[in-house]
TrEMBL record:
InterPro entries: IolE/XylAMocC-like, Xyl_isomerase-like_sf, Xyl_isomerase-like_TIM-brl. Residues 20-261 form the Xylose isomerase-like TIM barrel domain. It comes from the Bacteria. This is Xylose isomerase. It comes from Fictibacillus enclensis. Keywords: Isomerase. It holds the Pfam family AP_endonuc_2. GO terms for molecular function: isomerase activity.
Length: 282
């Protein structure tokens, strides 16, 4: 089992702290979504002028950067915004080459009053343009099951329109189940052959919260994490299990010192339970 965490969960940690905590708790990777207050990490010395030092630190710790989590949205009708996203993807493409990172996370984006069919057409057209950045490179864009692109059927339709092996799926196991009631088996049955990476979180319903739910430590909510993990293992999933601890957006949740250690322990327990349990049939 390969574990990672996103830097969204540790906004105040420097590189040395991230690496030392990752090694201490048995993680294999760190997924970058911002660093010390800067979301576009390629603007920072650690990912520009001091790239070699950063790469050496990761190599010495035997850690990977399995994914760079970008802010890019596939759906946009703004030419200016599309150009900004293209520039961002070019920066991340360079970082992927340097660090040997195979994936860049992208969002579908909010579609507002647009019909889904129109939004899919626009997103597919934009994606075809974005993918030109990666021609000849071993880099794949991962569309996260998030925002208005949570439904497996909608994601499948966009993938079909794009029709490229360099566009796959990041299954955020939380969002489809929590926000639209999509069962994990349904998600897998539709998208399983395209899922290359996963994000993990837990929550419970809290109607007074602006989201309608409260994020919590894994195992303290009611997301069917055991079913999800068992499903992935039974289907021979070999990708990362990445904790997306949204500390930046939800400052009330536990500090990373607590959450990152707890996640590693929880997932290892889950692995043991699944290994001793029955195999699922599909």
């Amino acid at each position: 089992m390969k574990l990672a965490f996103t830097t969204l969960g540790c906004p105040d940690w420097n590189l040395e702290t991230m690496i030392s905590r990752a090694v201490q708790h048995g993680y294999q990777g760190i997924d970058f979504r911002g660093y010390l207050g800067e979301m576009e990490i390629y603007r920072l010395p650690e990912f520009s002028t001091n790239l070699e030092v950063t790469r050496d630190r990761f190599r010495e710790a035997s850690l990977e950067i399995p994914c760079f989590s970008s802010s890019v949205r596939l759906f946009t009708e703004s030419t200016e915004q599309r150009e900004e996203y293209l520039a961002e993807l070019k920066q991340y493409a360079d970082l992927c080459e340097y660090f040997g990172t195979p994936f860049i996370r992208v969002f579908g984006g909010l579609i507002g009053d647009r019909e889904k069919e129109e939004a899919i057409t626009i997103a597919a057209r934009n994606t075809a343009e974005y993918l030109k950045v990666f021609e000849g490179l071993p880099v794949t864009l991962l569309l996260e099951t998030h925002d208005d692109w949570t439904s497996c059927r909608v994601v499948q339709e966009l993938l079909s329109r794009v029709n490229s092996p360099q566009m796959e799926v990041l299954w955020d196991v939380h969002h489809p189940y929590r926000t639209i009631g999509e069962e994990p088996e349904q998600t897998w049955n539709v998208l399983g052959d395209r899922i290359r990476y996963t994000h993990w979180k837990d929550s419970y319903v809290k109607t007074e919260h602006k989201r309608g739910y409260q994020l919590c430590l894994l195992g303290e909510g009611d997301i069917p994490l055991y079913r999800m993990y068992r499903l992935l293992k039974d289907q021979a999933y070999e990708g990362y299990f990445t904790l997306e601890w949204e500390k930046v957006w939800c400052p009330e949740i536990e500090e990373p010192e607590i959450a990152f250690k707890q996640y590693a322990h929880f997932m290892k327990q889950l692995e043991q339970q699944v290994s001793s349990g029955p195999t699922m049939k599909f």
